[in-house]
């Protein structure tokens, strides 16, 4: 949440800041602002709304400034107003600060500062930090020391960038719990919440460590970390292509990302399938077959869509490997006192690798001596770095706030994990393993077939433009898909939607069904088919309208369902990789027909770095 960019170099800071903010807007987009260093003062501009509004503001002479910081906000403390927007200033107006995270003890700090005669303009926790840095600087300290001594007094999380009118061509940045990365350019350096703001300028980056504070000039970086000078060893190369973070002719990132799934799925299993032995090779896990045999229990922790893929992982791992799996909301797990016995391993699933609750659950497990394994998309992210080992899903940057290709990538990796564990434990024969490998390799083509039918999905979606409620039903491995379908719809179209195990419907939700209630049912030809058909009849008997996701060539379902969307046949445990695609497209087209901002839905942000 919240995007930060800071620039120091010889170029026009404002250009870098604004283009960087646009790339970070998915992190938060209720207000924006910047501060530029001009002669011996700071020029601050802030506004409510999107970066394009900020772009229209006149920076005056500061247009040529070569040092600055900027921010796009996702409000935590205080509504989105110009006054609450970042940057915030110290009492003298000579220091500007942008912040991502939450200062938990801001009330007591504010009281202390007020007692010193310092007044406040905003309702934010961030302004307290800005005033605190100012108060430390007022004791004759340079910016780095002022920031360092202010942060000692703070409890909470932060990624910050700070600028002082008294220290030309210098930025100070610090992180604790919120990501920051520094791009190392030629005579210029850029600090940002995410490499997306940096890759247009340089691919060489340094990820800041927890608790690290850095001073950045155009010539270099120095740090408070155990590795005080930034050495070449810490520089990592980002191998993204700029095209990956462009819309590429699609009207929205979400549509581009849905359509890129054949490729992202190929990337997820490329080089990882062993057709000879009917297993998968996941070197990143760092587990031998005997390590796998030693696993007695698996805990999967995640949030949101990643939690849904974890639920699918439970079905698939338990089926193929016969290892008990618990799937935990990270936000609940972190505040329980979970029982974690010897022989338990934890899979931590996160697209961004920065989700605060997921990170906290990971840290708790590590503290308890549990082996932690990441299933992460963003390379170099905090969860990727803090897990003991892990597997990247290689989906490429996911910009749309509603997660799509990350979900299928995570689900694919979990299938590969189940395959490896199943073979290692001897529950799956070589022949069955080979068959599953072949089925996995055919998935991208089958996804392409579904995407080819998007026109009929668009047609059906139009009919739901004015729906106010939706029910999603599925059984077995398709129950989490029902949850995911409902989440996608509510996130981007603001239609109330609930996902349920199909058989649970009669224990309550059936009371909601009438002819105004569309019910989406995943009714593929699998072991649960007959049971799901009975559930559809129960809906129809109450005048409900049924949209069925069915297996190609199923004529029977057409006699009961009002609408049918077909997917190609596939082995049961891989169905979610196909059944979710029409649901993603459905929510996308419903949201578009309702005129919603698909890529930036209200109140949401891509990466939830506050708890
Ligand atoms: O980056 P993560 O996978 O850790 O994010 C977890 C959730 O915040 C995320 O999946 C969220 O639910 C998405 N907006 C769903 O589309």
Q: Key features?
A:
3 domains; globular; binds 5-amino-5-deoxy-1-O-phosphono-D-mannitol; Rossmann fold; 18 helices; 611 residues; Glutamine Phosphoribosylpyrophosphate, subunit 1, domain 1; 6-stranded antiparallel sheet; 8-stranded antiparallel sheet
Task: Outline the structure in words.
The chain is an alpha/beta fold and 611 residues long. The chain has three domains: 3-238, Glutamine Phosphoribosylpyrophosphate, subunit 1, domain 1 (4-Layer Sandwich); 247-445, Rossmann fold (3-Layer(aba) Sandwich); 452-597, Rossmann fold. The chain contains 18 helices and 26 strands. The strands form five sheets. An eight-stranded antiparallel sheet has the order 3-2-4-1-10-9-11-14. Strands 5-6-7-8-12-13 form a six-stranded antiparallel sheet, covered by helices on one side. The chain has a five-stranded parallel sheet with strand order 18-17-19-20-21, with helices on both faces. A hairpin with a 4-residue loop joins strand 15 and strand 16 (279-280). The model has no long low-confidence stretch (mean pLDDT 94). Bound molecules: 5-amino-5-deoxy-1-O-phosphono-D-mannitol. 5-amino-5-deoxy-1-O-phosphono-D-mannitol is lined by residues 303-306, 350-352, 355, 358, 401-403, 491, 607-608.
């Amino acid at each position: 949440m919240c995007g930060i960019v800071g620039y120091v170099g010889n170029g026009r800071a404002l250009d870098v800041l604004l283009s960087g903010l646009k790339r970070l807007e998915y992190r938060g987009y209720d207000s924006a602002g910047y501060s530029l260093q001009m002669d011996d003062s700071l020029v601050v501009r802030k506004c409510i709304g999107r970066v394009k509004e900020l772009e229209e503001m006149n920076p005056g002479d500061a247009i040529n400034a070569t040092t600055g910081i900027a921010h796009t906000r996702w409000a935590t403390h205080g509504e989105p107003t110009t006054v609450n927007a970042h940057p915030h200033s110290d009492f003298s107006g000579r220091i500007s600060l942008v912040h991502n995270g939450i200062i938990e003890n801001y009330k007591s700090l504010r009281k202390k500062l007020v007692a010193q005669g310092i007044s406040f303009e905003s309702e934010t926790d961030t302004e307290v930090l800005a005033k605190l840095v100012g108060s430390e600087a007022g004791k004759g300290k340079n910016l780095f020391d002022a920031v360092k001594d202010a942060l000692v007094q703070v409890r909470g999380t932060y990624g910050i960038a700070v600028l002082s009118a008294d220290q030309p061509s210098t930025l100070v940045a610090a992180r604790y719990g919120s990501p920051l990365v520094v791009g190392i350019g030629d005579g210029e350096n850029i600090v940002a919440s995410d490499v997306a703001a940096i890759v247009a300028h340089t691919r060489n980056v340094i990820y800041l460590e927890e608790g690290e504070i850095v001073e950045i000039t155009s010539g270099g970086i120095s740090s408070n970390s155990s590795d005080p000078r930034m050495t070449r060893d810490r520089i990592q190369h980002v191998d993204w292509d700029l095209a990956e973070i462009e819309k590429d002719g699609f009207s929205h990132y979400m549509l581009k990302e849905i359509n890129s799934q054949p490729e992202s799925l190929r990337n997820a299993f490329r080089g990882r399938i062993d057709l000879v032995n009917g297993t998968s090779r996941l070197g990143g896990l760092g587990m031998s077959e005997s390590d796998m045999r030693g696993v007695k229990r698996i805990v999967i922790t995640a949030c949101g869509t990643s939690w849904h893929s974890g639920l699918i992982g439970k079905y698939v791992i338990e089926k193929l490997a016969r290892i008990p799996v618990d799937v935990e909301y990270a936000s609940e797990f972190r505040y329980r006192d979970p029982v974690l016995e010897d022989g338990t391993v934890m899979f931590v699933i996160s697209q961004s690798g920065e989700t605060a609750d997921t990170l906290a659950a990971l840290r708790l497990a590590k503290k308890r001596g549990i082996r932690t394994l990441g299933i992460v998309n963003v390379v170099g992210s905090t969860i990727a770095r803090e897990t003991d080992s892990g597997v990247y899903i290689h989906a490429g940057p996911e910009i749309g706030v509603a997660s799509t290709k990350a979900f299928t990538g995570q689900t694919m990796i979990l299938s590969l994990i189940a395959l490896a564990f199943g073979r290692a434990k001897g529950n799956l024969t070589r022949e069955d393993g080979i068959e599953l490998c072949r089925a996995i390799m055919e998935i991208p083509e089958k996804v392409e077939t579904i995407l080819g039918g998007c026109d009929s999905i668009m047609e059906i979606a139009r009919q739901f433009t004015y729906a106010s409620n939706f029910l999603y039903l599925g059984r077995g491995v398709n129950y989490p898909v029902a949850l995911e379908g409902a989440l996608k719809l509510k996130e981007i179209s603001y239609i109330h939607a609930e996902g349920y195990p199909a058989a649970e419907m009669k224990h309550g939700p059936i009371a909601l069904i009438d002819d105004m209630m569309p019910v989406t049912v995943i009714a593929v030809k699998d072991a649960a088919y007959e049971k799901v058909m009975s559930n559809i009849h129960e809906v129809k008997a109450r005048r409900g309208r049924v949209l069925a996701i069915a297996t190609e060539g199923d004529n029977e379902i057409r006699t009961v369902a009002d609408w049918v969307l077909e997917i190609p046949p596939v082995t049961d445990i891989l169905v979610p990789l196909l059944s979710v695609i029409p649901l993603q497209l459905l929510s996308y087209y419903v949201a578009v027909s309702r005129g919603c901002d698909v890529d930036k839905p209200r109140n949401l942000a891509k990466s939830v770095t506050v708890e």
